[in-house]
Write a structure and sequence with these properties.
By secondary structure, the chain is mainly beta. The protein folds into 3 domains: 293 residues, YVTN repeat-like/Quinoprotein amine dehydrogenase (Methylamine Dehydrogenase, Chain H, 7 Propeller), CATH 2.130.10.10; 70 residues, no CATH class; 78 residues. Helix content is 4%, strand content 40%. The protein has 4 helices and 39 strands. The strands form 10 sheets. It has a 5-stranded mixed sheet with strand order 38-35-36-37-39, with no helix packed on it. Strand 7 and strand 8 form a beta hairpin. The protein is elongated and about 80 Å long.
């Protein structure tokens, strides 16, 4: 049931944390293969075995945790470019539109005829989606229900070198001349997001829906925090002209590999180190980073010997986080993170009584106020889930940032400023260039989808790049860019 004219103030609870520290272990890159076949382009694990592919049409396998390798499958004279695993399916792609597949974790292999002659450079799949990219702007997307691959229209003839499947229907592609493409419908249609760099890009990796990296020629590493609308160069000591081929991340651990170099950040991109392999003449082509406890890279020595390295040990002291059950000594836990909470009201309580205030209990340990009900209803449909808590519990909770509008749901303007804005994640406002642009984004009734914001709340928001074309702002993608209110702070 809706509460009319409620006062919206959101509170959250800060749990205490105890850290259990374990001793650090020795760490480093350990050579696991050198020279089994010609240079490698990709590495993966399927079941209990590891597989790698590269030049010379060979698929090599290790049955002893990657310690020794031998040729397991060979097909014609195809030079493989990548290999990946989803469940029990293992797929390798390469020259001439070749796709070789195993449905039983690599025990047996067969060829799939996709009637494509372009070279495939990269493949990524998840449980219900999949993408392949290659020369001449080639993009293939996977039909999970029919077990078929379809050609997509990419609106480019440039070579596409790298793809990241986000697993939620969105995916990113990079290629020649810095091109960046995105899909939000599992690969059926693709939007050209312009150039992410002024050079060829070989790999892309988004760590969140809005923050990501691209890497490529001339030691290029670039980062975006606004879903690819703008990019900043990441400078790393020791990088200059090297070509970078791949990037993957698990949590804050980001690994980039390339020509005679491994680049790594273990603090979410705040600091970076580059390890030089010029003396060994190792060029690394692929990162396989399935979990925080497992990290492999594969490539070539002198362009004719295979190389596989594994990271063993850790460089930082791991910690186990244990939540205390009590928020404040003597205060009983009456709600959990993600709840909406309020005080109980006495009979005949007035509209402006503090008991009418609804609060959000957030996992970031701070309370967040809703400036008004319009903001509230972009996040929640009703008040049915609001919990009543005691005054002692409520008073123990500190104040954080105000809640901002849910991305993509409304356009907004400030009361004394005529500019109309679209809303992105974390309260970023982006000015809409014209009425025509507003119509393209929100339809013919766009002018009925604008909320006024009091000038007093201008500090709640940040301001991003102006929207000059429909390709600059994807309304549907913005709406799903945050999984919930917690993700918006």
């Amino acid at each position: 049931m809706k509460h009319s004219k409620s006062v919206f103030v959101s509170l959250v609870f800060v749990p205490f944390f105890f850290i259990i520290v374990f001793p650090a272990q020795a760490s480093g890159w350990i050579e696991k293969d050198l020279g089994t076949i010609q240079g490698l382009q990709g590495i993966t694990k399927a079941g209990d075995n590891y597989f790698a592919v590269g030049n010379g049409s060979n698929i090599i396998r290790s049955t002893d945790n990657g310690n020794t390798w031998a040729v397991y499958d060979q097909s014609g004279s195809v030079y493989w470019q990548d290999i990946e695993t989803t469940g029990t399916k293992v797929r390798a792609v390469g020259e001439g539109g070749t796709l070789r597949e195993s449905t039983n974790s690599g025990l047996t292999w067969s060829q799939r005829n996709l009637e494509i002659t372009d070279t495939f450079y990269d493949i990524e799949t998840s449980s219900e989606r999949g993408y392949i990219v290659g020369t001449n702007g080639r993009i293939m997307y996977y039909g999970f229900n029919t077990d078929t691959w379809h050609s997509a229209t990419s609106s480019t003839t440039l070579a596409l070198y790298g793809v990241q499947d986000r697993g939620d229907g969105t995916a990113w592609v990079v290629g020649s001349e810095g091109i960046l493409l995105k899909t939000i419908d599992s690969g059926i249609t693709w939007t050209n997001k312009g150039k992410a760099a002024d050079t060829d890009l070989h790999a892309v990796w988004f760590t969140t829906s809005s923050s990501g990296y691209v890497v490529g020629k001339n030691g290029t590493i670039r980062k975006t925090t606004d879903s690819g609308y703008s990019w900043a160069t990441v400078s790393v000591s020791g990088l200059s002209t090297q070509k970078l081929y791949d990037i993957e991340a698990v949590g804050d651990d980001i690994v980039i590999v390339g020509d005679k170099v491994i680049v790594r950040s273990q603090d979410g991109g705040k600091t970076w180190t580059a390890t030089d392999y010029t003396s060994q003449n190792f060029t690394f082509r692929d990162v396989y980073f399935p979990s925080a406890n497992e990290l492999w890279i594969a490539g070539t020595k002198d362009d004719y010997q295979s190389v596989i390295l594994k990271w063993e040990g850790v460089t930082e002291t791991p910690a186990e986080t244990v939540l205390s059950p009590e928020p404040v000594e003597g205060v009983k836990i009456e709600a959990v993170g993600g709840d909406l909470i309020k005080l109980s009201c006495q009979a005949n309580a007035q509209t402006n009584d503090p008991c009418k205030a609804v609060y959000f209990y957030s996992s970031d340990g701070k309370r967040h106020a809703f400036p008004n009900d319009k903001v509230f209803f972009t996040w929640f449909d009703n008040f049915n889930s609001v919990k009543e808590v005691s005054a002692s519990f409520m008073s123990a909770l500190p104040l954080g940032k105000n809640v901002t509008y849910h991305a993509g749901t409304k356009m907004v303007k400030f009361q004394t400023v005529p500019t109309v804005y679209a809303v992105s994640k974390k309260g970023e406002l982006r000015a809409i260039a014209s009425e025509q642009m507003a119509t393209e984004l929100y339809g013919a009734t766009w002018n009925k989808q604008i909320d006024d914001i009091s000038d007093a709340f201008v500090g709640n928001y940040t301001f991003g790049v102006k929207i000059n074309s429909a390709s600059d702002f994807d309304v549907a993608a913005e709406k799903v860019s945050v999984s919930g209110l917690d993700a918006n702070f």
